[in-house]
Amino acid sequence: MAMELACTLSTSIATPEHIRIAEELGYVSAWCHYSPAIYADPWMMLALASERTSRIGLGVAVVVPRFRHVADIASSAATLTQLAPGRVTVAVGAGFSSAALLGGRGATWASVEAYVTNLRALLAGEQIELDGRKMSLLHSKESGISLPVDIPIWVAAHGPKGFGVASRVADGVITNPTHGNEKVPFQGTCGLSYYGTVLEPGETYDDPAVLERVGPTAALALHMGPYGPLAGSAEETGFTARINALPEEERLVATHRGHLISLTELDRQFLTGNVVRDGTLSGQPAEVRAGLDALEEAGASRFCYTPGGPDIPRELEAFAKAFGL
């Protein structure tokens, strides 16, 4: 299989150790999810991970322009690069739930494009103009930061506008196969981020142990409602009805509480074997390999596996074996 295996992690205090394990297993990179209302700080966890590893790529997915000033992200990326030379990547995206959970909207694709352009220029030691003022990074050698810094900058792309921006300014894209089955419209490195679990011999999709370990990621298929892979199913319609019965101002939080990292009581009511089968890449090793082959055919050059549940090391190891590492 020419496709590479990476992982995307729902950032927690345990993430540095999980990244160390991923490196031992042969994962080429580890991305930390960035959503301030849900996860631990990704930059802190990646800095700690840099001390425990020597080869694995380290990245943040995704930086949203509305969250932090571009110079702030440039400084964080430059600092991490000093700790892990040649291993850092940053993905920039428009954001949706991460921005909405902080009371705002996602960024426009035009602002994502400008952010990537300015981020690249600042890391190169160049001057930019922003909001009518000129600025640049001014780190001296005493800071320990050495400019220029040359790191890959990816775009988390969805839809024609997102892929259009990526084609103009990105070194790679990270996306999600649940947004469509058409071939990824990007000429370059493409990471597909997805989730699932490898079944043990004799296990079925609705075994309690399976539901527990894949539940936090499988629940995302419920959270996507009628726009996701479970559209029209009894589980999706039931979950969506319960969400829509809540006051409008409570729906977003109720949908995204525990997003990709833990199960809520509402999630558990609608989590079934059907959700695991139809909403994740799960199955016996041969079934998982077949699913990976299909994603590679759709244009993925890197599969970014998102493990879930209470035993992340088990999930990382089982998926690495199914992948063929």
From TrEMBL:
Q: Does the keyword Lipoprotein apply?
A: no
What the entry lists under Pfam families is as follows: Bac_luciferase (PF00296)
Superkingdom, according to UniProt?
Bacteria
Q: Does the keyword Plastid apply?
A: no
The residues covered by the Luciferase-like domain are 16-178
**E.C. designation(s):** 1.5.98.2
InterPro entries per UniProt: F420-G6PD/mer (IPR050564), Luciferase-like_dom (IPR011251), Luciferase-like_sf (IPR036661)
Keywords of this entry:
Oxidoreductase
What GO annotations for molecular function exist for this entry? coenzyme F420-dependent N5,N10-methenyltetrahydromethanopterin reductase activity; oxidoreductase activity, acting on paired donors, with incorporation or reduction of molecular oxygen
The molecule here is called: 5,10-methylenetetrahydromethanopterin reductase
